[in-house]
Amino acid sequence: MTSVVAWGVVAGAGLGFGLWCLASAIPRMSRPRLARRVAPYLVDISPHARELLAPAAPGPIPVLGMLVEPLASRARRALESTLGGSETIARRLRQSGSTITVETFRSQQLLWGLAGAVTGVLVAVIVARAQPVSVVIQVIIVLLFAVAGVLGRDRILQRTAKKRLARLADELPVILEFLTLSLSAGEGILDAMRRISRVSAGELSREIAGVVASVNTGLPLADTLTVLSHDLELPAFSRCVEQVVGALERGTPLAEVLRAQAQDARDDAKRDLLESAGKKEVAMLFPLVFLILPVTILFAIFPGIFVLQVGL
Q1: Domain that holds residue 79
Q2: Of the candidates 71, 144, 72, 136, the residue with the CA atom closest to the CA atom of residue 106
Q3: Whole-model pTM above 0.85?
Q4: Do residues 168 and 257 both lie within one domain?
Q5: Which residue of 99, 222, 225, 261 shows the fewest CB atoms closer than 10 Å?
Q6: Four-residue CA torsion sign, 158, 162, 165, 171
Q7: What is the pLDDT of residues 68-93, one digit of tens each?
């Protein structure tokens, strides 16, 4: 009897899965929404329009997505209202070079929190088997792991943005010197930026390539550089953009301005290197004071104590 029930459950699950796949492949008979009716006219400039017009994948995943999306949207809104800082998240995503949106990042945070909650449940079960604990402590463990998952995703984003900003700061003096050489050779600022974006490889050259692409579409160079400096919020790059924009407005020779900015960037890099060396030097004293010195003292004193105890 038990085997018959088990086979019945398996057969029912298979039948439900097949019907679900067939239902997901049937076109909808309802009237399309306004966004879907307008999407064919915006498919060239809007990624969201291309997503709406993309054919749905067969299987239960689209139907499952439709069922879960309202709950996920409410969870994202609750997470955003609790943590806040959507502008900060958007700025960090831009600084890290990520192409995902804030909503996608919130969804990833929810998934990380769910994974942390599952891990917390496993840890709570292991702890409960090892020694009896109250339900309140188990719930606290699960909540702590869930919160750690949510905050861990945000921490990873912070570290990614910080590392990319450090790479941008390291590449800035070299890029400025290349621009200075190109301008000194007689090229214009846009041609020099186009050349650098084509022959160099790096984070800053990719940003410059984006600026060149925006200018080719008709946007002013000064406004595009200003928007880029506002998005990155890199102090050295922001100062350089201010000087370049001022030189473009006043007609000042750009080669001298960029040469001075490259020297300032070199001085800033040297200063940061000296500060980092000072911090590393202090950090190197910790193993010396708390590990090597006590072991040396122990080896120096222990033989005398052993001799006194033996009585020789």
Answers
A1: 33-84
A2: 72
A3: no
A4: yes
A5: 99
A6: negative
A7: 566 666 666 766 666 667 888 888 99
C-alpha–C-alpha distance, residues 103 and 72, integer Å:
10
Do residue 168 and residue 256 come from a single domain? Answer: yes
Structural domain includes residue 250 = yes
Q: Specify the number of domains making up the chain.
A: 2
Q: Which amino acid is at 224?
A: T
Asked whether residue 266 falls in the same domain as residue 168, the answer is: yes
d(CA 7, CA 226): 67
Q: What is the pLDDT of residues 244-273, one digit of tens each?
A: 888 888 877 888 888 888 888 888 888 888
- CA dist., res. 272 & res. 108, Å (int): 34
Examine residue 262 and state whether it is found in any structural domain, yes or no: yes
Instruction: Please count the CA atoms within 13 angstroms of the CA of 76 that sit on its side-chain side.
Output: 16
Please tell me whether residues 266 and 169 are part of one structural domain. yes
Q: Is the pLDDT of residue 161 over 90?
A: yes
Cβ-based neighbours of 241, under 8 Å, separated by 6 or more: 225, 226, 228, 229
In contact, 224 and 215? CB cutoff 8 Å: yes
Q: Which CATH number fits the domain that encloses residue 206?
A: 1.20.81.30
Q: Which two tokens stand for residue 263?
A: 């020297």
- Is 279 inside a domain boundary? no
